[in-house]
Every structure is written in C-alpha cells, then in structure tokens.
C-alpha cells in the first residue's frame, strides 16, 4: 500500500488510474486545476485538491499533509495542433510546471514518479512497431515538451534520488464503469465516431482512404484506458533509475474504417462517412511495441479487442445522455 498523489486525476486517463490505485488498496490524492478535468470524474475514495501545479505552496502543502510516497504525473496539455500554434503554453505547463513538481518532490524527499508520456517523443517512425531504442525526434512541441521532461528525469534520478518510469503510448480509448473520454474540444476518433452514431454530428470525416494499408485508411494503436491504468500502477513498483517503456495494443493496430465498423456493430446505428484529403504529416501506420514493458513490468494489454473498447466507450457515452 502506498500513498499516491495523482496530478491530472480529474482527467480522462488520470481518473481511471485513480480508480485502479484505489482498487489495489492504495491511498489516493487527486491534484487537478480542472482546466480540462471534471470534479465528478474523481473516484469517491480519493481525496480531491483543486490546485494548479504552478502553485508551489499548495502543492507542497498537499504532498506534506497527505504524506505522499509517490506521484503519478498525468497533468499536461496534450493537443498536438494547439502545441504547434502555442508552444509557450506547452513549455510552461508540460516542462515548467513539471519541473515545479519535481522541485516539490525533491524538497519533500519523495522518490517515486510515474510519468504519462507519449510515443510522439519518437517522431516519424523509421521502423514498426516502435521500440524504446528508436530515435527520439519529436515533430511537434507536444512531443518535444514530453521528451524534455523525460530527459530531466534522467538527471534527477542520479542527483536527487527521484526514480521514475515514463510510459509512452499513442491513443487511450474506451471507458471504465464510471469514467470515460469527455475532452473539450474532442479530437479523438472513437468519441467522434460515437457522436456521429448518436446523431450529434452529421458524419465522420476520414482523412485519406488511399494509404497502403489493408483498407486504405490509417492504422493507429488504441489501448483500453483500464489497461493503461494498470500499466501506471505496475510502473509504480518499478521506479528504479529513469526508465521508459512503450505501450502498444499488440498486433497490427486498427484502421480508421475498422473503428467505424466496430462502432456501427456496437451501436446498431448508421454512421455516415465523408472522405477528405490526407492530413499533412499523418503516417499510414503507427503502432508501438510493448515487449520491454511485458518483460520488466509484466504488462500486456488484456482488453485489446477494438469492439470491446468501442462498446465500453458507447456505454459510457450513453450513461451521460
Ligand atoms: N489521451 C491520450 O490518448 C494520451 C496518449 C498519450 C499520452 N497521454 C497523456 O496522458 C495524460 C492524460 O491525458 P488525458 O487524455 O487524460 O487528458 P485530460 O486533459 O483529460 O487530463 C489532464 C488533466 O490534467 C489537468 N491539468 C492540466 N494542467 C494542469 C496543471 N497545471 N495543474 C493541475 N492540473 C492540470 C487537467 O485539468 C486534466 O484534468 C497527459 O499527460 C497526456 O499527455 C494521453
């Protein structure tokens, strides 16, 4: 049992991480400024503190009062497009506020951190599935700022004894019984497809159907949010030095059309598709390897079936209507 502070624990993935920690018997404090998160996403067993990472005094007081022994760091800005037009926001929050968190941990001698990173730190892949040994060369400020924080962690372990695991993954998807995806604006494929199924948007736009893939649409890597939450919990027990693990769905990934077909099947609704032009910089296929995570953490995706992922997301969306 550990006392764990979850930054960004009112967000989509963080709230499910908090649930998984609680169900394993850990004590959880959620620290979130609610810029994107929702108070009602925080599981009832967790203590909620409404605070910003930039508020060093409140952060220290929270860590001290809760006697936190570890931190799971999920709080970040994470919209790729926004990061390109407003990189300063991403440096300030993902790097600046991240370093402020590390300062507080250093001061309070908290030596364990799990960091939610992204496979975007690797940039355009030369080889698939993407392994940890692939070069890191991000192509947008979002990936760059996540990499900058990962790099800081390398130095902080030796110098200050803050041991960490960075988890890099592509697309969190699906929902737990009580928490699911509610981004605003929503940019992720599965909730957008389900909005089309629910009649909340007229159609779903597919950006390019002439890629060299099995049905011409892009292949992406979706991981069930509960599987991701399990990875964060397992990583807490493996903080030694500064490690990084890629997490992937296994197999060949899922095409955009396969997601839409799964949604048609699950919802029994009509979903209209419009084919638009390719988006610049969209690779045909993106999948990550999870071999190292399986070897060291004993993690593999247990809920990888795309139909099951879409079904859980639909159940959650229906429960909110
Ligand atoms: N969603 C994905 O597919 C995905 C993929 C890879 C990595 N990630 C990473 O996982 C993490 C969580 O993503 P998510 O999709 O749940 O996003 P989210 O926006 O739902 O959650 C982020 C939470 O952090 C909070 N937050 C942001 N800045 C803060 C600050 N300065 N102080 C306090 N709270 C702050 C927000 O209010 C929000 O509740 C992020 O770090 C993201 O980069 C997400």
Walkthrough of the structure:
- The protein has 321 residues and is an alpha/beta fold.
- It is 39% helix and 17% strand.
- The chain has ten helices and 13 strands.
- It has helices at residues 12-23, 56-66, 80-85, 87-107, 141-160, 189-197, 225-236, 256-267, 291-297, 306-320; strands at residues 3-7, 27-32, 47-50, 70-73, 112-116, 163-168, 171-173, 204-207, 219-220, 222-224, 242-246, 254-255, 273-276.
- Strands 3-2-1-4-5-6-11 form a seven-stranded parallel beta sheet, sandwiched between helices. It has a two-stranded parallel ribbon with strand order 7-10. The protein has a two-stranded parallel ribbon with strand order 8-13.
- Helix 2 packs across helix 4, helix 4 packs parallel to helix 5 and helix 6 (189-197) packs across helix 8.
- The model has no long low-confidence stretch (mean pLDDT 97).
- Bound molecules: nicotinamide-adenine-dinucleotide.
- Nicotinamide-adenine-dinucleotide (NAD) binds at residues 7-8, 10-14, 32-37, 52-54, 74-76, 78, 93, 97, 116, 118, 169, 171-172, 183.
């Amino acid at each position: 049992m550990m006392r764990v502070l979850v930054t960004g624990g009112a967000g989509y993935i963080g709230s499910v991480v908090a649930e998984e920690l609680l169900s394993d018997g850990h004590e959880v404090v959620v620290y979130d400024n609610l810029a994107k998160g929702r108070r009602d996403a925080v599981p009832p067993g967790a203590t909620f503190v409404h605070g910003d990472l930039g508020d060093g005094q409140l952060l220290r007081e929270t860590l001290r009062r809760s006697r936190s022994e570890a931190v799971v760091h999920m709080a970040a800005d994470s919209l790729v497009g926004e990061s390109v037009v407003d990189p300063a926001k991403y440096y300030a929050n993902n790097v600046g506020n991240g370093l402020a968190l590390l300062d507080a941990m250093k001061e309070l001698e908290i030596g364990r951190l799990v960091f939610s990173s992204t496979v975007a730190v690797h940039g355009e892949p030369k080889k698939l599935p993407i392994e940890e040994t692939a070069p890191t060369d991000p192509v947008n400020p979002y990936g760059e700022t996540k990499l900058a924080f990962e790099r800081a962690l390398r130095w902080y372990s030796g110098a200050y004894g803050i041991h960490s695991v960075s988890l890099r993954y592509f697309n969190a998807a699906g929902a737990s019984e009580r928490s699911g995806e509610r981004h605003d604006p929503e940019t992720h494929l599965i909730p957008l497809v389900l909005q089309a199924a629910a009649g909340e948007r007229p159609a779903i736009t597919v950006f390019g159907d002439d890629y060299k893939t099995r049905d011409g649409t892009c292949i992406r890597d979706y991981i069930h949010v509960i599987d991701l939450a399990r990875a964060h919990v397992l990583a807490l027990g493996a903080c030694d030095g500064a490690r990084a693990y890629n997490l992937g769905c296994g197999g060949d990934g899922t095409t955009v059309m396969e997601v839409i077909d799964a949604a048609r099947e699950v919802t029994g609704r009509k979903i209209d598709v419009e084919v638009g032009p390719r988006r610049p910089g969209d690779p045909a296929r993106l999948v990550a390897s999870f071999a190292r995570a399986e070897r060291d953490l004993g993690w593999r995706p247990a809920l990888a079936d795309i139909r099951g992922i879409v079904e859980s997301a639909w159940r959650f969306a229906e429960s909110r209507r």
